[in-house]
Write a structure and sequence with these properties.
three-stranded antiparallel sheet; Fusion Protein Consisting Of Minor Coat Protein, Glycine Rich Linker, Tola, And A His Tag, Chain: A, Domain 2; single chain; mainly alpha
Length: 366
């Protein structure tokens, strides 16, 4: 719009300047037509010069017509110039409008492009931020995993050291216990031999006393039997005398019979015996072994070792007590813990229970 106004102002100044110059030219022509100098000279030396002005009406009319034509031409030229200026102004305005529209479209496109670039930049920044956060999170998780792995390794090494120390202590204790048990076994064997000798002597004495008592008892029984037989004979004799008196002496001629008898009823004793099936015993012992094995979780640590477990159960399979009777000490401790947690089945019969209720099991982890 500024350029259009500037051009319009220049055009107006040019038109005004042209009109002014034409008016001055017309004024000079008119003035020149009215003023004409003529110089007339007389003959001779005493002649005078006369100044005269001559006006030509035709020239004046012609000059006036020329002026009118020039004014008309000037007006027509001015109108054409104004029309052309308006056309140029309109064209320039349209051109400027088109230019403004083009610039506006370019600006809108630029703004759209900038907005799109800004959005893409924001998206890229957000993606970069998310990627950085993901990397950071992954590093933190990796660090936590490494720390957990290091902690687990340290715990594992600690457990291994503790187990090795416990095994060493258990082995040392087992060795000392074994030596003590050997000494104890020797002492017990000597005591058993001594007790066996004393028991044998006591048995011989008891046997002699029993034989003596049996003899006294037999003698007493014989005496009682003889007394009973004597009493029976006296009673029979007395009854026979009474009958003889009653029959008036006929008894002396009648055959008399004495009868006396004693009958002894033999006593028979039935021998009570009870037998236990070896198959039932072995099967139930295997069930108890499996029940303890089910609660034993460190079999690999004690592979190849043995422990004697002495257990006491009810007829329902409930564990009353359990104790070690020999073997590897570490294994025995673990086996006792497993036995206390085990669900021992009930014995299949009372005979098996009576034979097994205080049994000793040779436990071998598998």
């Amino acid at each position: 719009m500024g350029k259009l106004k500037e051009r319009k102002d220049k055009l107006n100044r040019s038109v005004i300047t042209s009109v002014v110059l034409h008016l001055l030219l017309i004024a000079l022509v008119i003035w020149g037509s009215f003023v004409t100098k003529s110089g007339l000279t007389g003959g001779g030396e005493g002649g005078q010069v006369i100044d005269a002005i001559m006006v030509d009406p035709n020239a004046m009319v012609e000059n006036f017509n020329q002026q009118q034509q020039q004014q008309a031409n000037a007006k027509q030229a001015q109108a054409q110039r104004e029309k052309k200026a308006k056309q140029q102004e309109e064209e320039l305005r349209q051109k400027e409008l088109r230019e403004q529209e083009r610039l506006k479209a370019i600006e809108e496109e630029r703004l759209k492009t900038e907005q799109k670039v800004e959005e893409q930049k924001k998206v890229a920044e957000e993606q970069q931020k998310q990627a950085q956060e993901a990397v950071k999170k992954a590093k933190e998780e990796q660090k936590l995993a490494e720390e957990a792995a290091a902690k687990a390794q340290a715990e594992k090494e600690k457990v291994i050291k503790e187990q090795a120390l416990a095994k060493k202590q258990a082995d040392e204790k087992a060795a000392a216990q074994k030596a003590a048990e050997e000494e104890k076994a020797k002492a017990e064997k000597a005591a058993q031999e001594k007790a066996a000798k004393a028991e044998a002597a006591k048995a011989e004495s008891a046997k002699a006393e029993a034989a003596k008592a049996e003899a006294a008892k037999a003698e007493k029984a014989a005496k009682e039997k003889a007394a009973k037989e004597k009493a029976a004979k006296v009673a029979a004799k007395k009854q026979a005398n009474e009958v003889d008196d009653l029959l008036g002496g006929l008894a002396s001629n009648a055959p008399g019979t004495e009868s006396g008898g004693a009958s002894a009823a033999g006593q028979g004793g039935g021998k009570k015996s009870g037998t236990n099936s070896d198959a039932d015993m072995d099967g139930y012992k295997a069930q108890v072994q499996l029940a303890i094995q089910a609660k034993f979780y460190n079999a690999d640590m004690y592979r190849g070792k043995e422990c004697l477990l002495k257990i006491n159960i009810t007829n329902k399979g409930t564990l009353i007590s359990a104790e070690s009777a020999g073997g590897d000490e570490g294994l025995c401790q673990a086996a006792l813990a497993a036995a206390k947690q085990a669900r021992i089945p009930a014995p299949p019969s009372d005979a098996v229970w009576r034979a097994f209720k205080n049994a000793t099991i040779n436990f071998k982890p598998q």
